């Protein structure tokens, strides 16, 4: 039985490509980076969120164009690397977010992920995959021993997924009707 | 490219972009200075907003506390007067016991010894944009005399060191970062060993031989061997000890609250600081002066 609310359709032709107001993508990405670098000064627990990642996932899923998705991921990731400390070389988050931008756009072109439950699930998976690529890069390219999976990662993924549902609803307002 | 299907084009683009970043990573591993320009641009673009945000929050807090949140002021005033009287008594008692307070004496000694060391108070305006590194951004930079490798402290203890100095901003590597380290020693036994960050709230004190006695609660202070911090500044307190060979695994809780830093002090010198010889009568000095590490600061 098809649930109207949670409509995961496999036919590509039914899935709408969303367009956004001018400056929405750039503005959201910059705002996410600003908040990521500023809010933890006052609320240290905020650092568990990865707002730039959520922006990459959202626009990837909505725009459904792998090329723009991966380029957005690359730019956001490199800027995030630039704002990070010396243990984060330029390219660490850049590579991970490039891949997530590509995957989100590719999946967005096949599945309709408009329902909050679908958004929760996809964000949680993407967060874990993103951290997987960060860990892979650290292990292979930087020769740093990093655990693949921890309980903290799972909790962070769930928290980011909860926040994603709220943030995505806000970002929906930037769509052109 | 005209004959390549769109799907393949994006895959080729993906491969190209990742390859580019892998090369960028490889270059950075070879040469540390690579990529600095991009960091300079990004930090330069972001820091004005961080500065404005920090100022805005300060103003909102000030306005709220001075004009709106005054309902309980009278009651609080009475409470504070009463607390003030009690504190005055406690201060008198503490002053008489100042000679016994090692940490107090160390800080006082530091202040006396470093009277000529210029210091600068700075406000924290941002943090690293990821969870992997532990850095903060300050609202002072090269124009204020801040340079790489300058030490950063609070009156509670060591915070970290400056790793990048931009025009109006400086990036500080916190003690808890995995790349961070400070020359330290145990305050009682005077055993020296570097203390490094682990990426977690607790620090790691390396190279304490298994046959040496270390106690939980023992203070860890700077040794001065790193040529950044003077001797006897508080680093932290021993929180956990695990026996291992050939070295014990000693975990140290930082003395400064690194999770919630709003203002710090930068030691504006790159020269090795020399600890002044022990004062002839530290107790006499301690009796007459408050600890006031920030009193020597030029704001």
Describe what is shown at a glance.
The complex is a heterodimer of chains A (177) and B (299). With 177 residues, chain A is mainly alpha-helical. Helices cover 62% and strands 0% of the residues of chain A.
Mean pLDDT of chain A: 85
Q: For the largest sheet of chain B, list the strands in their spatial order.
A: 1-2-5-4-3-12
What is the rounded Rg of chain B? 24 Å
Number of strand elements of chain B: 12
Counted by DSSP, the helix tally of chain B is 5
Full CATH superfamily name of the domain at 36-67 and 118-174 and 259-272 in chain B: Rod shape-determining protein MreC, domain 1
Protein chains sharing the most extensive interface: A-B, 43 and 51 residues
| Structural class by secondary-structure content of chain B | alpha+beta
The CATH architecture category of the domain at 36-67 and 118-174 and 259-272 in chain B equals Beta Barrel
Shape of chain B: globular
How many structural domains of chain A?
1
Distance between the termini of chain B: 61 Å
* Uncertain spans of chain A: 1-13
Beta-sheet strand percentage of chain A?
under 5%
Question: How far apart are the first and last residues' alpha carbons of chain A, in Å?
Answer: 30 Å
Mean pLDDT level of chain B: 77
Rg of chain A, Å, rounded: 16 Å
What is the number of beta strands of chain A? 0
The CATH class name of the domain at 36-67 and 118-174 and 259-272 in chain B reads Mainly Beta
Q: Report strand % of chain B.
A: 25-35%
Question: Which series of helices and strands of chain B comes N to C?
Answer: HHHHEEEEEEEEEEEEH
